[in-house]
Write a structure and sequence with these properties.
Length: 505
């Protein structure tokens, strides 16, 4: 397999081609490991406290100019960014694979998701609209206008190291905001590459305020600086529920907006009428894809008693034979776990599951290149929804449980403290509609006959309860990045008061 020098050389070549200067990734104090082999492929500089303040202040200054640029013109910048991403898709996709360990197909898919949101945001830049509302007063007009908000902070996680930034940044930029980004400390290289591509687009755009989009590499202190700074009006944070519990109160205390996309413990319900071929593929992709490291990963599978014995052997066979290995190789479906901590969390969960009556299939370490952590995904038959099943473990573990009525399965689905994504496999329209109804799944995403992961950007993305309630990407998510003003205009010559109130002077 590839030796040490080759992976870091390849990384340097990719970064160089995307316009990142070598000083940015060869002389710092923070080592960056590739999960493919665990070797150090680069070193980066952490931003200090003063760098954070400077970047946020520069972003605020940029915002003051940018907010007055017409939105369709702002869209032009995002259109150019989309072009740069198209041109760099294969390089950036491979860099995502090297840094986050996801398969090349998924790395490229992630860049495609960035391109898609850019396209969406360009159209949106001509569709930022408010309502006009009927008023009770004669010769008056009432309407809503939407204005740029300010500096938007983006905190993103390792598993979608670039797409999550783009869901926020593409929208924020057309909405007239400036963006300061703190990527995961595990994936700074892809962030540097994206920043370089943004700067290319900015140069082509021409007259752009400096500081409009900045990246701050570093650990927890950088996130804290972003969350605490009063110039940052919105923080969009993706990561664990534990992180959200730290971020949310700080934002609340200074009345800033929080857009939180936190943990998920996503389930699928398999009903008696389900198409089992389709269910098998949907469950396999959602549970094992990205080595179980998506926030939308399928973690709980509820199978109706009547089909349990038909589905389970097929699922076990898929788990036993799935191709695990170097994520750069075309036929690999499962790459490495991100790091040793994630391996330890997986081991702990499997030990707990066994103690709680579970029967574990898989979960063992398999050979891979270098010191990368490669594991066979685990399928765990559970006697009930015990504590370990209700805990999100960010690793490829699928708990399988039986159920006997749809109401019971919906209750199991909704018992999780998180509420991100969910799905049902059924050919019965009543069951499908019930699952999507007010008394069905309580999640932000409820799918029918597809798994819970792999959403496209046109819909609003996010979830309820411990998932944090935020919505990113499509639908009307853009509104989170703008401030709303209600305007009442009197074009008459008298002053009627609302609610019949009299005040004659
Ligand atoms: C995440 O894991 O943080 O729906 C986001 C999906 C992807 C996004 C996942 N489009 O699986």
């Amino acid at each position: 397999m590839s030796g040490g020098a080759r992976l870091s050389d390849e990384t340097a070549a990719l970064l160089g081609r995307m316009g990142v200067e070598s000083a940015a990734f060869s002389h710092g104090d923070r080592p960056v490991a590739s999960p493919i082999t665990s070797e150090i492929v680069a070193t980066v500089h952490d931003a200090g406290e003063a760098d954070c303040v400077r970047a946020i202040e520069a972003a605020h200054q940029a915002f003051l100019t940018w907010r007055a640029v017409p939105a369709p013109r702002r869209g032009e910048l995002v259109r150019l960014l989309g072009e740069e991403l198209r041109a760099a898709k294969s390089d950036l996709g491979l860099l995502v694979t090297i840094e986050a360990g996801k398969t090349l197909s998924e790395g490229l898919g992630e860049v495609q998701e960035m391109i898609d949101i850019c396209d969406y945001a360009v159209g949106l830049s001509r569709q930022l609209f408010g309502l006009t509302i009927a008023t009770e007063r004669p010769d008056h007009r009432m309407m809503e206008t939407w204005h740029p908000l300010g500096v938007v902070g983006v905190i993103s996680a390792f598993n979608f190291p670039v797409a999550v930034w783009s869901w926020n940044a593409a929208l924020a930029l057309v909405c007239g905001d400036a963006v300061v980004w703190k990527p995961s400390e595990k994936t700074p290289l892809t962030a540097l590459a994206v920043q370089a591509l943004f700067e290319r687009a900015a140069r082509r755009f021409g007259d752009i305020p400096t500081g409009l989009s900045k990246v701050l590499i570093g650990g927890r202190e950088v996130g804290e600086a972003l969350v605490a700074n009063p110039l940052v009006r919105l923080v969009s944070a993706t990561g664990s529920t534990a992180m959200g519990r730290v971020v949310a109160p700080v934002l609340a205390a200074r009345f800033a907006r929080a857009l939180l996309e936190l943990g998920g413990n996503n389930a699928a319900i398999v009903c008696p009428s389900a198409d089992l071929d389709l269910t098998l593929r949907g469950a396999a992709f959602s549970a094992m894809g990205t080595a179980g490291q998506r926030c939308t990963t399928l973690r709980r599978l509820f199978v109706h008693d009547s089909i349990y014995d038909a589905l389970l052997p097929r699922l076990k066979a898929a788990y036993a034979s799935v191709r695990i290995g170097d994520p750069r190789e075309a036929d690999t479906l499962i790459g490495p776990l991100i790091d040793a901590a994630s391996h330890a969390a997986m081991d702990r969960a499997l030990t707990d599951a066994t103690a709680q009556g579970g029967r574990v299939h898989g979960g063992e370490r398999v050979a891979g290149p270098g010191e990368g952590i490669y594991l066979r995904p685990a399928l765990v038959e559970m006697p009930g929804q015990t504590a370990v099943v209700l805990r999100e473990t960010f690793a490829p573990i699928l708990y399988v449980l039986r159920f006997s009525s749809l109401d019971e399965a919906i209750a199991l689905n909704n018992d999780a403290p998180q509420g991100l994504s969910s799905s049902i496999f059924t050919n019965d329209v009543r069951e499908a509609e019930r699952f999507c109804s007010a008394v069905g799944s309580d999640c932000g995403i409820a799918n029918v006959n597809i798994g819970p992961s792999g959403a496209e950007i046109g819909g609003a993305f996010g979830g309820e309860k411990e998932t944090g309630g935020g919505r990113e990407a499509g639908s009307d998510s853009w509104r989170a990045y703008m401030r709303r003003a209600t305007n009442t205009v009197n074009y008459g010559s008298s002053l009627p008061l609302a609610q019949g109130v009299r005040f004659e002077i």
